[in-house]
Design a protein that fits this description.
- The structure is a single chain.
- With 296 residues, the chain is mainly α.
- It has one domain.
- It is globular.
- The two termini are 21 Å apart.
- About 2% of the residues have low confidence.
Length: 296
């Protein structure tokens, strides 16, 4: 389920690119609108299931963790956009997604006061190596206007993603999928939407478009890449350690590159093929090397 979330997230980049090409809306503006779409569909599911009162009570009982996960989710997405603007798609992807599993490996070792195991370290190294090959083979290397600031933003984005997964793991043991998804995405939207729209206004970017296909894609991005994908992630975190989950979601850049090759006319190099196979190999090894998390 976590790998499937990564595959769905892999459609974000190509989808946002198509929206930008058709409508001129920036990636950050699209991110704000898809957050609104996600909250709308999750709210409709909650109302139709008649679980408003139960969900509210459950979310309030864990409001601290819910708030932290929601804020970190918003920070991860916003900082990744800043990194892309400052340093380009390829560098932002490698630094952000590559730093997350490394950080969790280090934090886990510090917590346990032991050195990382050989198999676990090898899995992280293989996954990050595959990420490097896939990202730079994808043909999306943009110019770096502010490389230092961009890398710092990407590191902060990766840290936010890693810590959000770590905090959400025990939360997924105590809350059902609908509750944790609806509550955390609602908090993320409260942070992300006004921030993104404010930046849109300051940059002088367009707020709207008359292209109906762009709006349909934005709804897709909200419903699938936020509501459904995060539901898959949180469900998977019940049985999978956060460090393994972060590696499993590295199928995101693999999917993005394959979509770019199949639909957008880009070319996949031999390095891209090797990188994809390395990521798949790292994910395949997770089932053998990961232990079941202790229920909290």
């Amino acid at each position: 389920m976590v790998s499937l979330a990564g595959v769905i997230w892999g459609t974000i980049g190509p989808g946002a690119q198509v929206v930008h090409d058709r409508s001129g809306l920036s990636s950050l503006t699209v991110t704000a609108y898809r957050a609104i779409a996600a909250v709308a569909v999750l709210g409709a599911v909650v109302v139709l299931s008649g679980r408003q009162r139960d969900l509210r009570a459950s979310a309030l009982s864990e409001w601290r963790r819910v708030s932290v996960v929601g804020v970190l989710t918003a920070a991860f997405q916003f900082l990744f956009f800043v990194a892309v603007v400052f340093t380009g798609v390829s560098v932002a992807t490698v630094v952000s997604l590559g730093f997350a599993p490394v950080l969790l490996l280090v934090l886990g070792s510090l917590h346990d006061r032991t050195f990382p195991g050989g198999a676990q370290s090898a899995t992280v190294v293989i996954a990050v190596a595959g990420l490097l090959l896939v990202t730079f083979a994808g043909g999306a290397n943009g110019g770096a206007s502010h490389p230092v600031l961009g890398i710092l933003a990407a590191l902060a984005s990766g840290a936010a993603y890693a810590v959000s997964a770590e905090v959400a793991a025990p939360l997924s043991q105590r809350l059902d999928t609908l509750t944790i998804t609806a509550a955390t995405i609602a908090v993320a939207a409260l942070v992300l939407v006004p921030t993104a729209l404010l930046v849109t206004a300051l940059r002088g970017d367009a707020f709207t478009t008359s292209d109906s296909a762009s709006w349909a894609l934005i709804v897709y991005l909200g419903v699938f890449t936020l509501a459904i994908a995060y539901a898959f992630l949180y469900t998977g975190l019940r049985r999978l350690p956060s460090s393994s989950a972060v590696i499993a979601t590295l199928l995101e850049p693999v999917t993005a590159v394959l979509i770019a090759v199949a639909l957008l006319g880009e070319h996949l190099t031999a390095a891209g093929v090797v990188g994809s196979l390395l990521i798949v190999a790292a994910i395949t090894s997770l089932g053998r090397s990961s232990e079941q998390p202790t229920p909290q």
